[in-house]
Write a structure and sequence with these properties.
Elements lengths: L25 H13 L2 E6 L5 H11 L3 E5 L7 H12 L4 E5 L7 H16 L3 E5 L10 H9 L1 E5 L5 H14 L6 H10 L4 H18 L5 H7 L2 H8 L1
Parallel strand pairs: 1-4, 1-5, 2-3, 3-4
């Protein structure tokens, strides 16, 4: 029986058991495991959405000596930003910083540069999670530091089975049992990226909640405009 989503806001869950470890992230996870033991400075990057934020929250829950700061892009002076980050991180031996994907503001970039310097002075391990291309690194002070770092990459799932596991996990967090036919439809007709698949799931979930109905293959095809997309592609 298909389960409908309950009508209340579901808090975001970052439990390790809900994070899908697949072949594309295996090398990155192994390198982070070494970082937790050996320390040093590490840049965690990815090819598209990879669940890095979820993974870092899960690491923090599992390892009490690890601190995590979410750099949300707030427009504050760089000095104030780095002071706030240090206040959160100083009690911990290992520091992690999670930045939004893409170029960051100059103030945030300068704050990150100063945090790297403070980590070095205080002999703290530092992991920077940031999906950012080499040509997007700025300002120059930060760019030079980032290019010197070892980089660990998280890649997309390599098979449909792995992508299905991610889709089912996200659907479970949204509290509904997605049908196999709907998942197959999404994988065959939408771009095979985590970002596109998760966005489609959330669109369907929101529409189903608004219309108070169950999600079927035919209804999902209509809501995601897949017939129109197929005609345009043809």
């Amino acid at each position: 029986m298909q389960q409908q989503r309950l009508k209340f806001n579901i808090p975001v869950s970052y439990e390790y058991g809900n994070w899908i470890r697949h072949s594309g992230v295996e090398n990155g996870c192994s390198r982070i495991a070494l970082w937790l033991i050996q320390g040093g400075v590490l840049w965690l990057n990815s090819d598209g959405m990879a669940g890095k934020t979820h993974f870092l929250h899960a690491l923090k829950q599992e390892h009490p000596h690890v601190g995590l700061v979410i750099a949300d892009g707030a427009e504050e002076p760089s000095v104030r930003l780095v002071e706030g980050w240090l206040k959160q991180l100083e009690p911990f031996a290992c520091w992690m910083v999670d930045l939004p994907a893409g170029p960051t503001s100059r103030t945030c970039g300068l704050a990150l540069f100063h945090l790297i310097e403070r980590a070095r002075e205080m002999n703290r391990s530092l992991l920077i999670s940031w999906r950012c291309g080499d040509d997007e690194l700025a300002p120059a002070e930060l760019s030079s530091r980032m290019r010197m770092m070892e980089q660990a990459m998280m890649l997309p799932p390599s098979s449909d089975q792995e992508m299905k596991r991610i889709i089912y996990s996200v659907a479970e967090e949204l509290q509904w049992d997605v049908k196999e036919s709907v998942v197959s439809l999404m994988l065959s007709r939408l771009p095979r990226t985590i970002a596109d698949q998760v966005d489609a799931l959330k669109q369907l979930d929101s529409a189903a909640l608004e219309e108070r109905r169950r999600i079927t293959q035919a209804w999902a095809k209509e809501k995601l405009n897949l017939d129109r997309a197929k005609e345009s592609a043809g």
